[in-house]
Amino acid sequence: MITARDMTAAELAALLHFHAEAGVEWLVEDAPVDRQAAFSAEKQARQRPAAAAAPGTAPAPERRRPEAPQPAPRPAAAIAIPDEHAVTEARFAAESARTLDELRTAVEAFGGCNLKTSARSTVFAAGDPAAGVMVIGPMPSADDDREGAAFSGKAGFLLDRMLAAIGLSRETVLLSTVIPWRPPGDRPPSAPEAAICRPFVERQIELAEPKAVLLLGNFTARFFFGGTGTIHALRGEWREIACGSHAVPAIATLHPQELLTAPASKALAWADLQAFRARLGG
């Protein structure tokens, strides 16, 4: 008899093709196999260990896979204060301060603005509160957040030169920012964030009682003057900003960072600085 082992692959393929055409659906082995007897033997083999157990003894407990350790519960996230409530709380905290030192403490303790959670420092006004001159920028930069002071880094160095050109310095003005906390990635503050911070910066102006305010940058000019104009449309013109019971004259100019990226605009900033110096009385 020729077995399958003695046949080539082509012969096997031809044989299978012949069986398929003949209607063969099952292939059998050379020796018969009793499948029912094999199944009965396997069933008896599985039942034998249970029958061998002593009567009255409890079966061995089933082994269970150890459960994976449950992760520790996360601490509850801080409850976000709705914007309108945060504005009310900010206004109450600002109006309760009677001095700039008290206002600094109130700002540092305030937790109603989400910007504080991602910032490293709270940047507050610094300089001479009695100088009668305020310089206000938009929001802290990465350098400001790291140093904890407004106008740090290259932009701050350029501002020092700008002030020196009109006979001023950090020590003879009060430097501040509209927003006391740096937004993530230096993005512009949202409208609700700006509304929450407004009572604090307006209270700074009210307590310092400056004779004139220099506003730096597009965001700062829009914040106090309103509208959607660019700094080139808002700069160089004196306007009054109302802070509590005070109306203070203010003029806007380009931010030092804008002058670093566009040096050709320095001539415009110089004209604004001269107007500011003239308003202060020479």
TrEMBL record:
Residues 124-274 form the Uracil-DNA glycosylase-like domain. Residues 38-74 are annotated as: Disordered. Residues 47-60 have a biased composition (Low complexity). InterPro entries: UDG_Type-4/5 (IPR051536), Ura-DNA_glyco_family4 (IPR005273), Uracil-DNA_glycosylase-like (IPR005122), Uracil-DNA_glycosylase-like_sf (IPR036895). Pfam families: UDG. It comes from the Bacteria. It catalyses: Hydrolyzes single-stranded DNA or mismatched double-stranded DNA and polynucleotides, releasing free uracil. Its EC number is 3.2.2.27. Keywords: 4Fe-4S, DNA damage, DNA repair, Hydrolase, Iron, Iron-sulfur, Metal-binding. SMART domains: UDG, UreE_C. GO terms for molecular function: 4 iron, 4 sulfur cluster binding; metal ion binding; uracil DNA N-glycosylase activity. The keyword 4Fe-4S applies. GO terms for biological process: DNA repair. CDD domains: UDG-F4_TTUDGA_SPO1dp_like. PANTHER family: TYPE-4 URACIL-DNA GLYCOSYLASE (PTHR33693:SF1), TYPE-5 URACIL-DNA GLYCOSYLASE (PTHR33693). Belongs to the uracil-DNA glycosylase (UDG) superfamily. Type 4 (UDGa) family. NCBIfam families: UDG_fam4 (TIGR00758). This is Type-4 uracil-DNA glycosylase. It comes from Ciceribacter lividus.
